[in-house]
Amino acid sequence: MNIKKFIKNEPVLIISGILAVLSAFIVKPSKEYLGYINFRTIILLFCLMTVVAGMKKAGAFDALARGMLTRVSSVRQIAVSLTILSFVLAMFLTNDVTLITVVPFTILVLDEVGIVSPHILIMETIAANLGSMLTPFGNPQNLYLFTRYSFTMNSFLELMLPYTVFSFILVVVATFFYPYKVGKKLDSIESVSASGKELNKKNFIIYFVLFILSIATVAGVIPDYVLLAIIAITCIVLDKKLFTEVDYSLLLTFVFFFIFIGNMGNVSDIKIFLENEVNGNEVITSIAASQFVSNVPCAILLSNFTNDGNGLVIGTNLGGLGTLIASMASLITYKIYLTSSQGQKVGTVAYIGKFTVWNVLFLIILVAFYYTF
User: Fold this and answer.
1) Is-above-0.70 flag for pTM?
2) pLDDT exceeds cutoff 60 at 93
């Protein structure tokens, strides 16, 4: 990979690395740097990404999507089905893994039946970002904030359940009532349903058990280092290539931000200023900041200056809506779309315009819900 392509593909990693290096000139590197890093978050992210990669390689998600498609007969039905699939999967697989799985499949289906509809892809993206907010393992910032503020599984679910239910209703309504070419039969649905990987039941069961163990670890039932050892040994025996499927750039981004924020927290003037700005305004501040730096680094940054974990969880999850970079998962759909036949037919400007309008609309409604709930 050349430098230009690397910069284009990993802007957040590069920015976080630069910030970490610059902060090292302010606070001299020492063994205290290790104390900045939340190793539990890093381990849990690594384990979850490895296990989900194994489930995907076993063909679990292809089989699930194919099963849903055999029960639809119109564009409206396929749009709603795939959007709901994105919403639900994101609760367990993270929003980015969900979109990596569902979006290419959706484009295949749309091309097969001759439909051009960026709206479906946009709704899937919104659904993945909103569905992922229910669980601690639905997205990276939730996992970090869950460990940072010592949430229990019940307290986290209770906090985000109202927003998730309301969001689900919004997504389904926005998808169902959009003016598609209603009634078009999916005559070639059989060829689409036959595509994709066949389910490897044995491997799926193994990785599913590991996924359950991962959830138990997030809940504090199993020590994280025990989970790491179990998953590492299993993958070494079963499929070493799974280690290459892990998003190491995301893990390194977390490390860089931990170092940067830890150093900034040692500069009293900066810490006092940010604490005064953030405290009492956690939700709105995190929503606003997410529009420019995305919600994952926003969660890491602001968590060092407030004790209101609830506000940050709500704010960074709602803050994933809005601009294209508010959630890094949204960029996954965008990148896949650009290189697809759908993107060539509709164009970049049209997609970004529609994406922004729908995201801002959802954000306004959910912020209003926050103030009235």
Assistant:
1) yes
2) yes
